[in-house]
Amino acid sequence: HLEYFNVAGNALSGQIPESIGYLTHLKKFNVAFNHLSGQLPASMGNLQSLSNLELRSCQFTGPVSILSSLTSLEYLRLVENQFTDSLDFLSGLSSLDDLDLSKNEFYGLIPPAITELCERENTYCQFSNNKRLCGDGER
After folding, report:
1. What is the pTM of this model?
2. pLDDT digits (tens, 9 = 90+) for 78-118
3. Which are the contacts of 100, defined by CB distance < 8 A and separation ≥ 6?
4. Which residue among 29, 54, 82, 89 is least crowded, i.e. fewest CB within 10 A of its CB?
């Protein structure tokens, strides 16, 4: 069973295939610093064992709400893409201790649960350069 997949910095292009969802034992998935594009496949929601997801500096677009089912995530880096979604998908991801969503197109208010998560000791949270993202989590 594949548990770790790291192809960061290899100038790969294309999209993440729908078949990624068959890797149900995957714990770490890193495709950062490549030329991957398109939307995340819905099957990524099947990766229930995933604790570390690194999609930094690619060309991904669209919503990321399919990540809301990945409740084992501790490390989530979506930096420097063109993701467009509200941050509501984060509300059930209470295990996060390293979260960077900067330089995307996220919008709306930061949910109160995420504000609380980011105030925990030893938790890293970054939301910078999302021009349509606002608030301190209070509704």
Report:
1. 0.93
2. 999 999 999 999 989 999 999 999 999 999 999 888 889 99
3. 56, 76, 77, 78, 79, 124, 125, 126
4. 82
